[in-house]
């Protein structure tokens, strides 16, 4: 398995990072993650734009431009024969004298195997646990997922797939996915305190009448359908939240239709 690390393409086991990198000691870094489909990086342009935007917003310098990143990615797909997998780009804060200020960071691009949630989860839907929280600097894809990693023991014990964040009765997103609700045929999704997901963007293209607005926790619980979107889950039905059943407790028709349309888009898409 080959990766890009230490400014070149090398075998993944040879990649290294300085132990005092503030990515490690302060959790200061950014990343992005996309999939390959038929050896093509799916919706790559959107992911590269987001990665570059995250770097700019966190004051990290990406020494490679979009075209250079694109060419390394294509080289890695070919070298690793990555027909359908995941690609992770990480940029750390770097090593600094005061162990605090970002400097020239380390850029890594890794290829990974990727498993989608089990078929049963698409057929029956999943459970989310409501958690009072709002992500700080929500629109930057930082590497800091300390809270959800720590909290995952709780949601696993409860048989949940993940969490749904809410604060002052307003919902935002799940720990690694965006959220949509359907009520009386109308699709809606939160407007604030979210990462602007690429899968969310695709859903907004497939359902342009979606309302982007503030959504309350009670609206979520009373919705006919709820679904979550992410690169690794596509469009996954949510059929319960805490002890509450959503709608009839089965994946709804809009959710299923959107997943079919999304998968057709994936087939057609080129970068
Ligand atoms: N929200 C958060 C906090 C995430 O970490 C992610 C994905 O990792 C998403 C939403 C979904 O984004 P995407 O559809 O681009 O994977």
UniProtKB/TrEMBL annotation:
One Pfam family from the record: Aminotran_4
Pathway: Amino-acid biosynthesis; L-isoleucine biosynthesis; L-isoleucine from 2-oxobutanoate: step 4/4; Amino-acid biosynthesis; L-valine biosynthesis; L-valine from pyruvate: step 4/4; Amino-acid biosynthesis; L-leucine biosynthesis; L-leucine from 3-methyl-2-oxobutanoate: step 4/4
Xref: InterPro entries: Aminotrans_IV, Aminotransferase-like, BCAT-like_C, BCAT-like_N, Class-IV_PLP-Dep_Aminotrnsfr
Transmembrane segments: none
Family matches, as SUPFAM superfamilies: D-aminoacid aminotransferase-like PLP-dependent enzymes (SSF56752)
Catalysed reactions, semicolon-separated: L-valine + 2-oxoglutarate = 3-methyl-2-oxobutanoate + L-glutamate; L-isoleucine + 2-oxoglutarate = (S)-3-methyl-2-oxopentanoate + L-glutamate; L-leucine + 2-oxoglutarate = 4-methyl-2-oxopentanoate + L-glutamate
Keyword Ubl conjugation: no
Keywords, alphabetical: Aminotransferase, Transferase
Coiled-coil annotated spans: none
MF annotations from Gene Ontology: transaminase activity
Enzyme class at the top of the EC tree: transferase
EC number: 2.6.1.42
Gene3D superfamilies the UniProt entry points to: 3.30.470.10, D-amino Acid Aminotransferase, subunit A, domain 2
Record family assignment: Belongs to the class-IV pyridoxal-phosphate-dependent aminotransferase family.
Protein name from the UniProt record: branched-chain-amino-acid transaminase
Organism the protein comes from: Fontibacter flavus
Lineage: Bacteria, Pseudomonadati, Bacteroidota, Cytophagia, Cytophagales
